[in-house]
Amino acid sequence: MIALLLGVGRARHGVLPAVTAELGRALIPFAVLLAGILGASAVLALAGAPAGTGWLTSPALWVNVAALVALRVYTTPGPPVTNLVRTALATWVPVAGNAIVFMSIGVVMAAAGMASHLADLASGFGPASLAGIPAIGALGGYLTGTNTGAAAMFSSATSGAATGLGADSLVTLAGQNVGGSFAIIVSPPRVALAVGVVMAGHTRLPGAATRTLATAVVAATIMLCAAVAVLA
Length: 232
Prior knowledge:
The protein is mainly alpha-helical. The protein is about 75% helix and about 0% strand. It has helices at about 1-15, 20-45, 60-75, 80-110, 115-125, 135-145, 145-165, 170-185, 190-200, 205-230.
């Protein structure tokens, strides 16, 4: 993706940004993230993946390591770091809280039998219902702003419906998750977070940008619905 964007920049503007020390410093956290995940995976694979070491390859671990490295690279010790951490936590809490709430809803749905009931209901519509699974995932991603929350609510029902119809549950779950991932980019909480970080002083995207994103999400969802209907 980086190479693609550089190619687009070269085609549009004729020149690429100079590789400076500042640019190199900006890439350090990303390099730590990439090297950490791939390096840990390679080491564990050579060691035979000992039991209980899977967490060493988790992106969650290396994202936090990269964040700590970024604090050291971009700031100096003292009050600026404290203020930055305080601001980051204030931004993180609503997003994390949102994900936790919807994950809890998913657990309740599964434990109470609601997911099984939804699966039986979907199965009643026949194979045609499989085509709507990515759209359900997209709706969940849009409403929750997190694919984790959308998956927690709908994955059990999706898997059950696919099994009941004799379809491939892996394909249907993939369609649901990818649909949710696409829809997240127009989810109001995610848009507000991104705009707040990138466009200081603004809380919403321009109308034209919002329409472009929405059109892309709808188009992707329709293609996913067709793909799941054919492949599942």
